[in-house]
Amino acid sequence: MAKNERKASQYVMSIRRSGLSIYDVIEASDPELWIPANIVEELLDTWLRGVSLEGLPLRTRSKVVKIKVCEALGYPIPRAFKKTQPRFIGQMLDTYIQKSNNLQIWNEEISPSRRYAIIRVGENNVISKVKVVTGDYISILDTTGTLTQKYQARLILAEKKTELITKRDTSLLQQVVSRKAKFDSNENSTDNPRVGELLPISEIFKRLKSLVGQKFSNISSDQERNRGALLHRLVCAKLGYRDFRDDGKFPDVRHQLLEVKLQTSPTIDLGKFRPDSEEPLCVPTIDECPVRHCDVRYAIFFGTIESDHVTLSRLYVTTGEKFFNRFPQFRGKVRNQKLQIPLPSDFFDL
């Protein structure tokens, strides 16, 4: 804890010394000025908890919170707050004040690289907790189906049962992957990737292709979710992890920057984020190398359903950067003016 506190104070001092405003862009790869999401949460929760908003009109309440956020992160308070998206451009941060568990996002898309500070206000109008989550997590919480934008692609089967679509990782990721990469089998597959532990895409393909032909059960009240979890478990074992872990975040095997998909139909549902996006992925830099969404590797399995089991019949492995080169994108988009996202009842306890 003390170590985190020292880190937090160092970030704040660096921001203060820089003279930057909340509207000045900072690259996610900046080791001194870009504050990691967990540290942003620590700073805001410490600074805002206990602040009373009693009797304040909505606009005044919002302004008071923005002022407190500036103070917490080390930024000077602007004479007037601009209506930008996000509100704190420098840290790709938006703030939402919540008395209920119904998060409403108006007239803008969920961004995978944006951080969302969800500020809990109790019945006494006093701030009781601040949680900071990323756009990919907000996307998971959206169970209403009212998406601002939804990307899909078409799976075109090839004669080959296994296909390594891109033999090398993106030029950026090649700087940190290694054929000699090793990690302890007790490593958590949902941890952030680290230098010396990141397998190259060719090695991932080599380890996973033996799964083709394997069968597993298809009996569950939620068959699609169950199939995905069973496949995820098999993938983790093949990659060398002793235990199966799944925190529901993107990518599935974060430690290897690997997203796993099981297709039983030709339509690949990609959700709100393009695989070839060059937006930064919200993970720490790897040996000072920033990670983007397009650097993520995809393992796409095609399975055939036969009564009570699924048989894996095809495997395709690619980088996000080259994803649409192999799988054509559907051009249609689903748009809506507002997202209403129910927060889990234990959201502020996690």
Major sheet details: 5 strands, mixed
Quaternary assembly = single chain
Mean pLDDT: 86
Total number of distinct structural domains: 2
Class by helix and strand content?
A: alpha/beta
The percentage helix is: 10-25%
Query: What percentage of the residues does DSSP assign to strands (E)?
Result: 15-25%
Work out the number of β strands: 13
Shape descriptor? globular
- The string of secondary-structure elements, in order, is HHHEEEEHEEHEHEEEEHEE
Rg computed from alpha carbons, rounded to a whole number of angstroms: 22 Å
Low-confidence stretches: 1-6
Distance between the amino and carboxyl termini: 17 Å
By DSSP (H or I, 4+ residues per run), the number of helices equals 7
Characteristic key phrases:
3-stranded mixed β-sheet, 2 domains, 5-stranded mixed β-sheet, 350 residues
Helix/strand layout:
Elements: H1 2-18, H2 37-48, H3 58-73, E1 93-98, E2 102-106, E3 115-121, E4 127-134, H4 135-141, E5 151-154, E6 162-164, H5 201-208, E7 215-217, H6 223-239, E8 258-263, E9 267-271, E10 297-306, E11 309-319, H7 323-326, E12 329-330, E13 338-342
Parallel strand pairs: 1-3, 6-11, 8-10
Antiparallel strand pairs: 2-13, 3-4, 5-9, 5-12, 7-11, 10-11
